[in-house]
Amino acid sequence: MTTGELLNIEPQELQFPFELRKQISCSLNLLNKTDNYVAFKVKTTNPKKYCVRPNTGVVPPMSTCNVIVTMQAQKETPLDMQCKDKFLLQCVFASPGATAKDITPEMFNKESGHHVEECKLRVFYVAPPRPPSPVREGSEEGSSPRASVSDNGSLNAAEFTSVSRAHVERHEPQDNSSDARSLISKLTEEKDSAIQLSNKLQQELEHLRREAKRNHSGISFIYVFLVGLVGIILGYILK
């Protein structure tokens, strides 16, 4: 804040977020810290480039006034983003109840004996604010995040790591599913083999039964053993 006897001026310099082919504005806040009316006038070294509203006015006692300075759209970027433009704000005491219509050029003439307070303000170009990052398509359900590519074609490292992690996580369930299918296939083969063995044992059992009837003999120990073995296999299959 620039502090004078009549007005406090904030900020001390004019900063414009420079962008080609776009009007840019910044503001000055004038605070009258006296008990008198204060008239002001704003001048610039490049009047065709800037528009000041209001460029003259009166600030009542213990009041503030906001001045908007607008830079016209520029067609070329200045060298090294440097600006040599300057502003001069002049202020003097005004009669009580004065308005902007009462201001005359003679009021700011030092040769007429008026006490004119002056404040010089420099102009600076600053980088424009960055726009917010757009929502990635990968944030939608069922889709993978896409890494952004910078202007020179390079992939952002953090986003590359995120994409790689998502790629691995997406493929892990497939690997687990493949192992499950392999296990199921192996168990199915073992079950088929057990069924074939059971059928073969049943055939042998029927053969022994027929031989037993033919020889009119009782149930042999082998027959009992085979019956028990078939029962065990069937119990295993039914599990």
Notes on the protein architecture:
Helix 1 (about 155-215) packs antiparallel against helix 2. The two termini are about 90 Å apart. The chain has a 5-stranded antiparallel sheet with strand order 1-2-4-8-6, with no helix packed on it. Strands 3-10-9-5-7 form a 5-stranded mixed sheet, with no helix packed on it. It is built from 2 helices and 10 strands; from the N terminus they run E-E-E-E-E-E-E-E-E-E-H-H. The protein is an alpha+beta fold and about 240 residues long. The chain is rod-shaped. The longest helix has about 60 residues, at about 155-215.
Task: Give keywords.
239 residues; 32% helix; 2 helices; 26% strand; alpha+beta; single chain
Write the layout of secondary structure elements.
Layout: E1 2-3, E2 7-10, E3 13-17, E4 24-32, E5 37-44, E6 50-53, E7 56-59, E8 64-71, E9 86-94, E10 117-126, H1 157-215, H2 221-238
Helix pairs in contact: 1-2
Q: Characterize the biggest β-sheet.
A: 5 strands, antiparallel
- Main-sheet strand order equals 1-2-4-8-6
Radius of gyration: 47 Å
- How many runs of DSSP E, i.e. beta strands? 10
Amino-to-carboxy terminus distance = 88 Å
Tell me the β content: 25-35%
State the low-pLDDT regions, or none. 147-155
Relative helix content:
25-40%
